[in-house]
Amino acid sequence: MSIGSSISSTGLTVRSPSNSKKNNMEDVELGSSSHGRRLKAKESDVVEMTPLIVGNGDGSSKIPQSPRQTSSEGESSSCMKSFVASAMYSGCSVGMVLVNKSLASSYNHLIDGDLNFLLVVFQAIAAVICVEVCKFAGWVEYPDFNLRTAKLWAPVNILFCGMLFTGMTSLEHNSVPMVTVFKNITNIMTTVGDCIIYGASVEVLVIAAFGIMLAGAVMAAKNDADITTTGLFWMLANCVCTSGYVLYLKYATKSVKLSKFGMVFYNNVLCSVFLVPVSFMNGEIRTFLNTPALHTVDYAVKNAFAGFVGFFLNFASLNCVAQTGPTTYAMIGSLNKVPIAIMGYFIFDNAISEETWTFISISLIGGILYTIATLRSGRRKSGK
């Protein structure tokens, strides 16, 4: 008989010498006797015994884990998932910006106008093709297009399109440094919204990190701080749309019963549906059709590759918001400007001004503070 099975879970079996002259041994079970009488024991005398070694049912045995050990492993796994989700989003976001920058530097001089919205449509269509190919191959699963699900997901795309439109319009009326200042204000708005709507707790160091990054953006924009009433309106509208997009995205990823790949599918299908009319009304489709230099295999391949990167960016964004929350998502978006500026310097020979170096340095300090605050918060939760 194995050690793991010698202790009965239904009661404790005791061997006791018989009072008979034969001195034989009989089994006496706690709570009963061989004469049919009940042996009564005080409740205080009964001790619950937990086996040190538990049988697995297959003849093997194992030592059970303590609740604290299990909790610690769960927290460690959660931290690792958050780190991986953040790294994936950051890498895909930086990659997407660099791909689009390469596309713009190669073809913008050939275009009489802008194709900002139409490029998003091209890339969304490419992302839909990617996810549908994965579904056809059996690598991923999600239900076919459903109008009811599309209606639930539509606010995400409406806010996303609003974010794109207000962001591009604000750049026409404001300098890039001023836009960066308001982007950092957007992060603070997102954090406040996360606290009010979802009850998230905010560390003092997190507030300090956002404050430092905002101060760095203001310092970088001190020589180019002109702003008009129209520019201010569009920047505030962009702040509201961006913050609303991130906050509603968290709600949508929790409430809409879809896999992440299903969300990628609906995200890009609806994005195409909403932005094609916009591209038509602002003349981008006409511009594209009247520019023969864009009707090449090279341009199509580069857009397809951008859509392929966008497919991964969509998945990484949804996963990052679900695993970490809107506040961390917003912070990563701000910190991404650092590797983008540095890689732009080496890849595209973009000069980095003294103000930009100041912003990069201060942003890194803010990022370090935010990381410390997040780690402290994780340790505090695991210690409960």
UniProtKB/TrEMBL annotation:
The keyword Membrane applies. Keywords: Membrane, Transmembrane, Transmembrane helix. It is found in: Membrane. Residues 1-76 are annotated as: Disordered. The chain crosses the membrane at residues 115-140, 152-171, 192-219, 231-249, 261-280, 300-322, 329-348, 360-378. One of its GO terms (cellular component) is membrane. InterPro entries: Sugar_P_trans_dom, TPT_transporter. Residues 117-370 form the Sugar phosphate transporter domain. Residues 1-13, 66-76 have a biased composition (Low complexity). Its main location: membrane. It comes from the Eukaryota. It is a multi-pass membrane protein. Pfam families: TPT. This is Sugar phosphate transporter domain-containing protein. It comes from Stephanodiscus triporus.
